[in-house]
Write a structure and sequence with these properties.
CATH architecture of the largest domain: 4-Layer Sandwich
Strand content: 15-25%
Distance between the termini: 11 Å
Number of strands: 25
CATH superfamily of the largest domain: Aminohydrolase, N-terminal nucleophile (Ntn) domain
Bound molecules: glutamine hydroxamate
Structural class: alpha/beta
Strand order of the largest sheet: 3-2-4-1-10-9-11-15
Length: 608
């Protein structure tokens, strides 16, 4: 959340800054701003509420020339959405953009006000700017020392980039809590919250690590670690193609990402299924060998869509790998005292690998003596990957739509592969081989269900004006109902709730009337007869039902069948989420919502 982009360039900086911050808009779009030092050594700061396009419109009227600047797109945490609260924040010669939250900002604010500083915003970030100015003027020290002295006084997250107008030959960056990556150019350098913003400028990157401070000049970069020792961080070459982050023929990234799912799943499976029908993850290495296979319990921790993927896998771990499994929302896990199960192994899931709640759950878990931990993640080099004992990459490719789609189905694909691997280890060979065989068909099955888009579009027309929608599923389709409801909430703002179908009679049945459509996921499996009973219960109460199934049903008044192609039971959850993603997408499209940038949300939730 919140996007930072900064550069020190040979060419005029303005277009580079705008282009960079536009690419980070998925991280927050409450307001945006930039500051550059122009040729006369004046600071030019432009800020405005709303999308980056507003900022671009404002800038077009001006001709500003400069070679160093910072830009920011905000997802507000401290202070409402207003121009005054928009970054960059300034304290005389110090200019700051910040991603994170400063917990002790009110104490700092009072302290700095007493020293004579005037605050123009309600943000925590402005306290950083004044603190840096205060520390810089206390005694003459190097800028890295000033930053070290200041960040010792900050509690919270403070990835930031700073320009000192009195010495505009360098950007100063500090990372703690959320990511920053340096892009290496030819006699110019860049820094951003995500390499996506840098891919059209360079392929060469240096990821800053927790506690690092970087002094970035045109021709030179110096990095200092937590202890203020000068260090070298590894340079990596990215193989991500810039083209892959364009929308192409699609109207929204979410649409593109839904349709990319067969290809991303193929990529997730590639070279991981061995000739002897076993699974091999090349990146999966444990410091203590095979700990996961000897675990007697799996504790999964995640948020949002990743939490739903973990919920589905719980059914698989217990049924196929015969291993007890619990799933918990990350922020809850780290809010309570844990009584750890015997020989328990921790698995975290996150698309970005930067989800603050999941990261703090991982850190918290380290107090409790889990056998080990593993993260399932889409971003190599992310904080979760770095801080976990081991990792498996989902290989979904870059996901830009705020509502996750392909990262969910690739997480499920990895989880099912992992279940097969553990099943093999436990000599449950028959089921392991069956899973692997079935996984081969998965991309093709997703292609088949994607062809049902016209059918889903028609259903979307019927549902677009509804205020509330219920989603029901049983067994591993229950978390799919939850994920379907989440997609709809996120992008259409329709209130949607999911229930385990068996729970209906314990309360939610009271809601049923002709105004609340009920979406029921009812594939052919051992629970189908029970689901049919639930359908009858709703029908008898004049509920309006939409059944998503590969089976035939008696279609009567108020019962609509969304007939889907045949799907193997083992992979049915991965298949059934796709029509629900499409449904949410078409409903939001009918309602004219900004699908890739739903209000109040942002991708990569880097604040707790
Ligand atoms: N706390 C700062 C930055 C917010 C942020 O990083 N959000 O993800 C603000 O409210 O401006």
């Amino acid at each position: 959340m919140c996007g930072i982009f900064a550069a020190i360039t040979q060419r005029n900086i303005m277009n580079i800054l705008i282009d960079g911050i536009k690419k980070l808009e998925y991280r927050g779009y409450d307001s945006s701003g930039l500051a550059i030092i122009d040729h006369d050594n004046n600071m030019v700061r432009i800020r405005c509420i709303g999308k980056v396009d507003e900022l671009i419109r404002k800038i077009q009227k001006k001709k500003i020339l400069g070679h160093i600047g910072v830009a920011h797109t905000r997802w507000a945490t401290h202070g409402k959405i207003s121009k005054a609260n928009t970054h960059p924040h300034v304290s005389k010669n110090i200019i700051v953009v910040h991603n994170g939250t400063i917990e002790n900002y009110s104490v700092l604010r009072i302290f700095l006000q007493k020293k004579g500083y005037i605050f123009y915003s309600d943000t925590d970030t402005e306290a950083i700017a004044h603190l840096l100015h205060w520390e810089q003027n206390k005694k003459k020290e190097s800028i890295e020392q000033v930053i070290q002295n200041s960040i010792k006084q900050l509690y919270g997250n403070y990835s930031m980039v700073v320009i000192d107008k009195n010495n505009p030959t360098r950007l100063i960056a500090a990372r703690s809590g959320s990511p920053l990556v340096i892009g290496l150019g030819i006699e110019e350098n860049f820094i951003a919250s995500d390499q996506i913003a840098l891919l059209n400028l360079t392929k060469r990157f240096i990821y800053l690590e927790e506690g690092d401070i970087a002094i970035i000049k045109k021709k030179e970069i110096n990095i200092f670690n937590k202890k203020n020792f000068k260090i070298k961080r590894k340079e990596t070459i990215s193989n991500i193609k810039y083209k892959s982050i364009k929308k192409g023929k699609y109207s929204y990234y979410m649409e593109k990402e839904i349709y990319e799912q067969p290809a991303s799943i193929r990529n997730t499976l590639k070279n991981r299924v061995q000739k002897n029908n076993t699974i091999y993850f090349s990146e999966l290495q444990f410091k203590k060998k095979n700990l996961l296979y000897y675990a007697e319990h799996i504790q999964m921790v995640a948020c949002g869509t990743s939490y739903h993927a973990a919920m589905v896998s719980r059914y698989w771990f217990e049924a196929f790998a015969k291993i007890p499994c619990d799933v918990e929302i990350a922020s809850e896990f780290s809010s309570r005292k844990i009584a750890i199960r015997k020989k328990s192994f921790l698995i975290t899931l996150s698309q970005s690998g930067e989800t603050a709640d999941t990261l703090s759950a991982l850190r918290y878990s380290k107090k409790f003596g889990y056998l080990g931990n593993l993260t399932i993640c889409n971003m190599e080099g992310s904080s979760l990957v770095k801080e976990s004992d081991s990792y498996i990459l989902t290989r979904a490719g870059i996901e830009i739509g705020v509502a996750s789609t392909k990262s969910f189905t690739t997480q499920l694909t990895v989880l099912l592969m992992l279940v097969a691997q553990i099943a093999h280890f436990k000599k449950e060979n028959k089921i392991a081989e069956k899973i692997i065989e079935t996984l081969h068909i998965l991309p093709q099955r997703i292609e088949e269900v994607l062809k049902k888009n016209e059918l889903i579009k028609n259903i979307a027309k019927k549902l677009s004006n509804k205020k509330n929608i219920l989603f029901l599923g049983r067994g591993e389709q229950y978390p799919i109902a939850m994920e379907g409801a989440l997609k709809l909430k996120e992008i259409s703002y329709i209130h949607a709730e999911a229930y385990a179908a068996g729970e209906l009679k314990h309360g939610p049945l009271a809601l049923i009337d002709k105004n609340i459509p009920v979406i029921i996921i009812a594939p052919k499996n051992s629970l189908l007869e029970k689901i049919k009973k639930n359908i009858k219960e709703i029908y008898s109460r004049e509920g309006v039902i939409y059944i998503f199934s590969d089976q035939e049903f008696n279609v009567e008044k108020n019962i609509h069948l969304v007939k889907l192609p045949y799907i193997e039971e083992l992979i049915a959850p991965i298949f059934y989420i796709v029509p629900l993603q499409l449904l949410a997408y078409y409903i939001a499209l009918n309602k004219g919502k900004n699908i890739d940038q739903p209000r109040h949300l942002a991708k990569s939730v880097t604040v707790e």
